[in-house]
UniProtKB/TrEMBL annotation:
Its main location: secreted. This is Ripening-related protein grip22. It is found in: Secreted. Pfam families: KWL1. It comes from Glycine soja. PANTHER family: RIPENING-RELATED PROTEIN 2-RELATED. Belongs to the kiwellin family. The lineage of its organism: Eukaryota, Viridiplantae, Streptophyta, Embryophyta, Tracheophyta. InterPro entries: Kiwellin-like, RlpA-like_sf. GO terms for cellular component: extracellular region. SUPFAM superfamilies: Barwin-like endoglucanases. Keywords: Secreted, Signal.
């Protein structure tokens, strides 16, 4: 897995906050492969499909995923250097379970993760 980069997510609130910060919400960007047979595990939660490259997609931590309410929405990811990328929400990065076949036997993710396809580059 590649080294995580810190980013801000605009218009996505941290699960425990009551308001959205106009400057964005700090997050950690990780890289995933949403294609069949890849490290993303099962098909995406939002639509039951795989999303191979060149699709620009993300999975959000459980709180931000918010029961699927952000499925299909576009999110803007802004790095500290000011570069941005836009990607579609297609899945949940499970902050509570992980470690099962559906989640490619990976550990539960942190509560501030945006797990992006490899072509969502902001650094």
């Amino acid at each position: 897995m590649r080294k995580a980069r810190y980013v801000s997510i605009l218009s996505i609130k941290w699960c425990s906050l009551t308001s959205i910060q106009p400057s964005g919400t700090p997050a950690i960007l990780t890289v995933n492969d949403f294609g069949p047979g890849r490290d993303g595990g099962d098909p995406s939660e939002c639509d039951g499909n795989y999303h191979p490259l060149p699709q620009r997609v993300v999975a959000l931590s459980t709180g931000w995923y918010n029961g699927g309410s952000r499925c299909g929405k576009m999110v803007r990811i802004t790095a500290r250097n000011g570069r941005t990328a836009v990607a579609k929400v297609v899945d949940e990065c499970d902050s509570t379970q992980g470690c099962d076949q559906d989640h490619a036997n990976q550990s539960p993710c942190k509560t501030n993760i945006v797990d992006a396809s490899e072509n969502v580059r902001v650094a």
